[in-house]
Write a structure and sequence with these properties.
Elements lengths: L14 H6 L7 E4 L6 H8 L5 E6 L2 H21 L6 H8 L12 H14 L27 H10 L3 E5 L2 H4 L8 E4 L22 H16 L3 E7 L2 H6 L4 E8 L11 E8 L2
Parallel strand pairs: 1-2, 1-4, 2-3, 4-5
Antiparallel strand pairs: 5-7, 6-7
Length: about 270
């Protein structure tokens, strides 16, 4: 089953390659950069484990999953009240600039999240340095959703534990026999290629080094991990000492067709 939202860096196109690298036995599955959720969905579909703990530092993303899990129909009822116009898009987009936003109705916040990912250009969710959404308008003729698909998605995530969390905090309790899959914002392969603002804190050099440190900590605890990242010398240097698997992926969310094509990525693991 695929995710019900589009997310930059989604793993649907190389899902089999990723799953092929998973250990045969998993106690608790951890995924601290859940994004579009396609990997944890596959873990559930294939019944690789009965325990999944996933997180993200993006509060709106996690709230969306929690509300879809709790009552997807309530979210869709709110979504259906939102209008498909450029004017309404920008009115809804700037709602997070209200200081009382975080205290507002979590169901409406989930509907707004779905609305922006449906209405924005290429389904892009993006925020600025202040944490306010600045996704560009996508000029969508008609916004559609598949209620049956969302219903099945809700059913599939009933056993998943969702947390708003920094990636390192989510993994504190991981122990031998557990498995961690991480799909962080990638090491940029050039000065203009990075996209790191799903949340207001950009994922820069310090965060990449912190990620490596977390991997070392997991390795010391004998926790198996797998990390997706960019295919470049910077990634190989950062994760020197671990095992690399090369995979090819069809890029699909570039701003223009000339930037799309087959690229390589790295899977990094400690087993």
């Amino acid at each position: 089953m695929k995710s019900i939202i589009r997310w930059v860096g989604g793993k649907a196109r190389i899902m089999q390659e990723i799953i092929n690298e998973f250990p045969e036995k998993i106690n608790t599955y951890y995924e601290p950069f859940v994004g579009g959720g396609s990997v944890v969905l596959t873990v559930n579909e294939k019944k690789l484990t009965n325990q999944c703990v996933v997180g993200d530092s993006n509060e709106e993303l996690i709230n969306f999953y929690l509300q879809i899990k709790k009552d997807y129909k309530a979210v869709l009822n709110q979504f259906d009240k939102l209008k498909n116009t450029k004017e309404d898009f920008f009115k809804i987009r700037i709602l997070d600039q209200d200081v009382e936003w975080i205290k507002s109705d979590p169901v409406f916040r989930a509907a707004r999240f779905l609305y922006i990912t449906k209405m924005s250009f290429n389904g892009l969710w993006r925020v600025n340095k202040k944490g306010f959404n600045n996704s560009p308008f996508g000029k969508i003729d008609k916004i559609n959703y598949d209620e049956e698909e969302i219903k099945q998605f809700s059913k599939m995530i009933q056993t998943v534990e969702f947390k708003v969390s920094d990636f390192s905090d989510l993994l504190i309790h991981a122990k031998e026999g557990d498995f961690v899959y991480m799909d962080p914002p990638y090491v940029p392969i050039s000065d203009t290629s990075s996209f790191t603002r799903y949340v207001k804190e950009a994922f820069g050099d310090n965060e990449h080094q912190k990620l490596r440190d977390v991997c070392d900590q997991l390795n010391n605890k004998k926790v198996n991990f797998l990390v997706s990242n960019s295919f470049c010398d910077r990634t190989k240097k950062l994760f020197d000492g671990y095992n690399f698997v090369e995979v090819e992926i069809q890029r699909s969310m570039a701003a223009n067709n000339s930037s799309r094509g087959v690229i390589k990525e790295l899977l990094i693991k400690n087993y």
